[in-house]
């Protein structure tokens, strides 16, 4: 029963991790670039990115869970990683608010989600139509300190239960992340293919959703750092975040459909 609960927890953590603001920003940018070039991988950027990311997470989980069972991350390092995540998410939220406000006053400039990790990528990776490079980018994102820290929590616990369980959990984590990130790139692809004005409007709605996610998770992590008793169950939190993102897509799709119907009637 404990193993089943751990599997469910890791799957939901994968769903939640796929909603990382930096992930969404990078996937959105790559999807837009490939969409403009009519690349066949455009709608599958999220799938490729999460495969590379999940592959590295699985390798890390196997190393920690199988070969380093007695390894523990010092509390100071955990605290530092938590605050790096809090500050990064807050910065992403703020960056996208400024971007949303700036592009609102410019009819010629499209809104595009901005991230932090993506700024450190070389131009040849930011502007690629090569699926292997997209997988590589996902793998590079998995080497971030907060990803390793989060992976270690369940990988080491799983290693003490069963020898190959960390590998299985890594694959399950990858599956959860693939669902979210693939969903994201399909949404971005659809927005690109809709009429220019409607696509811009829908992109801005999704932009505000990402701002809300970034700020929400940042404030939540900061609050629970000082008040651990207020921490929500990870399964509940992950489902809530995924539900919010899914609901946003439904609202955006409904708005596009209604505006298209009005345009056709006129």
Please name the defining characteristics of this protein.
266 residues, mainly alpha, single chain, 78% helix
Give the CA-CA distance, first to last residue.
Answer: 59 Å
Mean pLDDT: 76
Largest sheet: none
Q: Specify the overall morphology.
A: globular
User: Given the helix and strand composition, which structural class is it?
Assistant: mainly alpha
| Strand elements, count | 0
* Strand fraction: under 5%
Radius of gyration, in angstroms, nearest whole number: 19 Å
| SSE topology string | HHHHHHHHHH
Please bin the fraction of helical residues. Answer: over 70%
Total helix count?
A: 10
Poorly predicted runs: none
What report would you give on this structure?
There is one protein chain. With 266 residues, the chain is mostly helical. Helices cover 78% and strands 0% of the residues. The protein contains ten helices and no strands. It has helices at residues 2-17, 21-36, 45-67, 75-104, 123-126, 131-141, 145-159, 165-193, 196-226, 234-265. Helix 2 crosses helix 8 (165-193). The termini are far apart.
Could you outline the blueprint of secondary structure elements for this entry?
Blueprint: H1 2-17, H2 21-36, H3 45-67, H4 75-104, H5 123-126, H6 131-141, H7 145-159, H8 165-193, H9 196-226, H10 234-265
Helix pairs in contact: 1-8, 1-10, 2-8, 3-6, 3-7, 3-8, 4-9, 7-8, 8-9, 9-10
Write a compact overview of the structure shown:
The protein is mainly alpha-helical and 266 residues long. The protein has helices at residues 2-17, 21-36, 45-67, 75-104, 123-126, 131-141, 145-159, 165-193, 196-226, 234-265.
């Amino acid at each position: 029963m404990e193993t089943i609960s751990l599997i469910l927890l890791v799957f939901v953590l994968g769903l939640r991790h796929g909603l990382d603001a930096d992930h969404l920003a990078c996937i959105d940018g790559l999807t837009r670039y490939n969409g403009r070039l009519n690349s066949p991988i455009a709608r599958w950027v999220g799938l490729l990115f999460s495969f590379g990311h999940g592959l590295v997470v699985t390798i890390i989980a196997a190393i920690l869970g199988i070969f380093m069972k007695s390894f523990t991350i010092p509390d100071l390092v955990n605290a530092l990683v938590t605050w790096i995540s809090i500050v990064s998410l807050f910065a992403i939220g703020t960056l996208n608010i400024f971007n949303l406000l700036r592009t609102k006053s410019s009819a010629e400039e499209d809104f595009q989600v901005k991230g932090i990790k993506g700024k450190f990528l070389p131009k040849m990776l930011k502007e690629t139509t090569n699926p292997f490079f997209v997988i590589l980018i996902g793998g590079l994102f998995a080497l971030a300190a907060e990803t390793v820290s989060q992976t270690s929590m369940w990988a080491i616990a799983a290693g003490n239960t069963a020898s190959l369980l960390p590998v299985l959990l890594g694959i399950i984590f990858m599956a959860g992340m693939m669902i979210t990130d693939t969903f994201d790139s399909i949404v971005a692809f659809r927005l690109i293919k809709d009429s220019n004005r409607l696509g811009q409007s829908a992109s801005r709605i999704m932009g505000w959703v990402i701002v809300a996610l970034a700020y929400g998770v940042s404030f939540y992590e900061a609050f629970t750092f000082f008040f651990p008793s207020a921490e929500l169950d990870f399964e509940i939190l992950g489902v809530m975040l995924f539900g919010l993102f899914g609901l946003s897509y439904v609202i955006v799709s409904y708005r596009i459909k209604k505006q298209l119907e009005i345009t056709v009637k006129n």
